[in-house]
Amino acid sequence: MKVLVPVKRVVDFNVKVRVKSDQSNVDIANVKMSMNPFDEIAVEEAIRLKENSVVSEVIAVSCGTASCQETLRTAMAIGADRSVLVQTDAELQPLAVAKLLKAVVDKEQPQLVILGKQAIDDDANQTGQMLAALLDWPQATFASKVEVNGDRVEVTREVDGGLETISLALPAVVTTDLRLNEPRYVTLPNIMRAKKKPLEVITPEEAGVDVTPRLKTLKVEEPPQRSAGIIVPDVATLVEKLKNEAKVI
Amino acid sequence: MSILVIAEHDNQLLNSATLNTVAAATQLGDDIHVLVAGSGAQAVAQAAGAVAGVSKVLHADGESLANGLAENMCAQVLGIASNYSHILFPATSAGKNVAPRVAAKLDVAQISDIIAIVSADTFKRPIYAGNAIATVESSDAQKVITVRTTAFDPQAAEGGNAAVESIAAVADAGSSRFVGREVAHSDRPELSGAAVVVTGGRGLGNAENFKLLEPLADKLGAALGASRAAVDAGYAPNDWQVGQTGKIVAPQLYLAFGVSGAIQHLAGMKDSKVIVAINKDPEAPIFGVADYGLVADLFDVLPELTNAL
């Protein structure tokens, strides 16, 4: 069976972003970009399913500007067989991305779509669930274990208070949590090989999807700054401060 | 139009996250309905009716809703969605699971993890791990929202007297099946609602040392938390994780032992009222947000602090 893995190009997780002075957005010019960490886990999981002969083909897909090709090349260096880029310079929100992905799913007919649980830029945590809804497929979010058995997939999910296991009929949508796996490093030979793998480019118009944003960002601000704290010399002073100054114990 | 709040519960007790979500709903309108969808959850429906400000409880009871499967929960909400201008879920793992599915079915954008309500169609939410706050305006007729519970003071659990109306439970969609649950047992307060949180990081060194936090947590009546590094290393269970990808907490007092303070961790705790950091490394970023910092070996500090309280 085929697996589709959507990946997103985001500001690298180690970068501390700054808000632009006109409060229009965060400043991401000249900032290091990379694949969303949860998506790396999704690609890794798809590749492992392929290595275990459960899956025959892994297709990576990304939606966004031409520079997302780099992210798709990374996915192919990890092991994806080929890629699809839905190229647009328009601002894409989760609902629009879910609709674009549905168009790709309709064309490619995968049995499983594995996404990251959230992107670390908009922190929305929506696209996988929305895609499942649009396709009318079952969903398993926040997966920490995925096992395909015949025409079902059994997924252990990280939920508040512990873990729960559900079983879904395929085709299905799964979103990854951090502890699903540890993504492998890409090797130089694989990076070279990835350059030769096929990368198809389509547009939202070709996919027949209206990507007009539904949410308008009015303003982006710095979060309130905490006032500078103090360094205390010893435990006795700390306890005294907590009791008498902060009055929290 | 009315506001719908989706109650979170385990079929026996109403989760306190629901109270914070109702509090957010009161800023949007005064006709607030709560949907209790579950199996054998009469007590939860009664409890929801007693919450101050709730005007009606809709109680759907059926096997299909016993374990909160997204497909069935979504269908249940969709059945009544047309009556409401706003549909609010707590931003818990259950709420995050279902809300976007409902939004997509209604063909509206979902607004995640709101921390403030500016007006009926404008909300504030954190982006980039809390390093920026976006104000967003929705152009959709209906708003589907998840509410960051720590950003809204809980509504009083008593004082309301709403009628409980039974509605038919949806049939099982059949595409997913509940297999089992592994609940992490804890006698301590629930992490996201605790007034005091004691957190350990990689500095604890091993799972055995994590137990050293327990006497202090017991003395303070605190919940135990962990950084991602500590969870990944197997020192603590994953539902203890505080951060962008774990729980978001905002207690009165947050004590961090051996936590360096990565961006992703700070995203989960920097709204705490008082932050105390104990770390050997004076350069650790955690000291940048701590009200009180102590540069010392946590293994020396822990017993001394426990005894001093």
What's the count of strands of chain B? 16
H/E element sequence of chain A: EEEEEHEHEHEHEEEEHEHEEH
Strands across the major sheet of chain A, in which order? 11-10-9-12-8-1-6-7-13
Which percent range describes the beta-strand content of chain A? 25-35%
β-strand percent of chain B reads 25-35%
Overall average residue pLDDT of chain A:
96
Profile the largest sheet of chain B.
7 strands, parallel
Note the overall shape of chain B. globular
Question: Keywords, please?
Answer:
heterodimer; A: 249 residues; alpha/beta; nine-stranded mixed beta sheet; 7 helices; 15 strands; B: 309 residues; five-stranded parallel beta sheet; 9 helices; 16 strands
Task: Give structural notes.
The complex is a heterodimer of chains A (249) and B (309). By secondary structure, chain A is α/β, with parallel strands linked by helices. Chain A is 29% helix and 32% strand. Chain A has helices spanning 37-51, 68-78, 94-108, 127-135, 188-194, 204-207, 235-245; strands at residues 2-6, 9-11, 18-19, 26-27, 33-35, 57-64, 82-87, 112-116, 139-149, 152-159, 162-169, 172-176, 199-202, 215-221, 230-231. Chain A is globular, with a radius of gyration of 21 Å. Chain A starts with a strand and ends with a helix. The mean pLDDT of chain A is 96. With 309 residues, chain B is α/β, with parallel strands linked by helices. Chain B has helices at 17-26, 42-49, 70-81, 93-106, 207-210, 213-220, 228-232, 263-266, 298-308, and strands spanning 2-6, 32-38, 54-61, 84-90, 110-114, 116-119, 122-127, 132-138, 143-147, 163-167, 176-183, 196-200, 223-226, 253-257, 274-279, 292-295. A seven-stranded parallel sheet of chain B has the order 5-9-4-1-2-3-10, sandwiched between helices. A five-stranded parallel sheet of chain B has the order 13-12-14-15-16. Chain B is globular. Chain B starts with a strand and ends with a helix. At the A-B interface, helix 3, helix 4, strand 9, strand 10 and strand 11 of A face helix 3, helix 4, strand 5, strand 7 and strand 8 of B.
